[in-house]
Amino acid sequence: MRHLMSPLDFSVEELDALFDLANDIEFHPKKYANACADKILATCFYEPSTRTRLSFESAMLRLGGKVLGFSDAGSSSASKGESVSDTIRVISSYADICAMRHPKEGAPMVAAAKSLIPVINAGDGGHQHPTQTLTDLLTIRSLKGRMNNFTIGLCGDLKFGRTVHSLIDALVRYENINFIFISPPELRIPDYIIDELKAKDIPFKEVISLDEVMPELDLLYMTRVQRERFFNEEDYVRLKDFYILKKAQMDHAKPDCLILHPLPRVNEISVEVDDDPRAVYFKQGQYGVYVRMALILTLLNIKVD
Amino acid sequence: MLKIGKIEQGFVLDHIQAGMSLKLYHQLQLDKTDCTVAMIMNAKSNKMGKKDILKVECDVNQLNLDVLAVIDHNITVNVIKDGEIVAKKELILPKEIRNVLKCKNPRCITSIEQELPHIFVLTDEEKEIYRCKYCEEKSDKKF
Prior knowledge:
The structure holds 2 protein chains of 2 kinds.
Chain A: H1 12-27, E1 40-45, H2 50-62, E2 66-70, H3 84-91, E3 97-102, H4 107-114, E4 119-124, H5 130-144, E5 150-155, H6 162-171, E6 177-182, H7 191-199, E7 204-207, H8 210-213, E8 219-222, H9 233-239, H10 247-250, E9 258-260, H11 281-299
Helix pairs in contact in A: 1-5, 1-11, 2-11, 3-4, 5-6, 5-11
Chain B: E1 10-17, H1 21-27, E2 36-45, E3 49-57, H2 65-71, E4 76-81, E5 84-89, E6 96-98, E7 119-124, E8 129-132
Antiparallel strand pairs in B: 1-3, 1-4, 2-3, 4-5, 6-7, 7-8
């Protein structure tokens, strides 16, 4: 039995197979409409997350399966002091697969160790959020047509942004990827990531100005500055609108430069950019469902001819 | 100069960083045994200036070498039989260690589920970096 705790749990070849399946689902949804007819997905969400939970539920429903679960710790037995290990042992007899989000880092791994059903980490604190990374990779592969030979700009909160860190970890496994880190000095990418890139001889540069590098980019991954990461409201207010991507900047971007964002967006991308065909962040949400459908099928070992 | 006699059976831990022997005594759980223990602190050392030494009279197999290696792999372990040094044990950093290092990340699952073992994995042998198996937080190796 297999679980998904980190995006690196799958080899590059396994990811290729997963993405091939996701693309097949995208183009032939009817073929998969009853693939999980007798299966139940448990969504165990110990903290609220509308987007991720609904994406998992949509994925299972589109596969013809059923869904049960809870959407915050208050409505689960955790509020009575039950351990994650005990909860998953019980859930194992209620469902066939489980997606777990937990504010404590490593909780899904603890669950997986005792679980009788596959567990998917749907986000554990500031640690991992593998299905977001799989979504990002599938979006790039589907819309760019390749997973190598490009320059990607990562912009915004590169210090605390866990989606950025996971995406870098996943992308370094592909060939000829050039990273440009765009952030204010206070939110620059952590040194340990820089050290890893240097050790692997992967090209990168760090800049403050987005305008300066816009024409070089094949992909731009925007992120939100998260209020909850700051101890000091003043710092948050000062940095939250440091980058606002506007239509005028898009004029300097390559004609095929894609704009991605893990969402939700606040101010960092102006709504006037939404209609630009290169803005693919809403399409990304759609790929999030396809990749979760492919993941459910893969972990449940269900093959559809 | 203070003189401490020879031990007949057991081990001598030499080249302990000065001031660390008491912590080591607890980490090795020697306080839970009835072995005779001599703790020498701030002894003169040509190599280190000052050092601590622990002499423990017990079966050498009682010694958890993994704990020692994580704390300080430069410690010399001399095995004593019939009052003589019969072997020196090499300290090798263990790949994984349980319940020696504590995860101090307040966001780690171990912070709320007390019965979970604290497991650390060696992720960089050269830099001697251990990370929590659950949250991957780097250990500060403060005991």
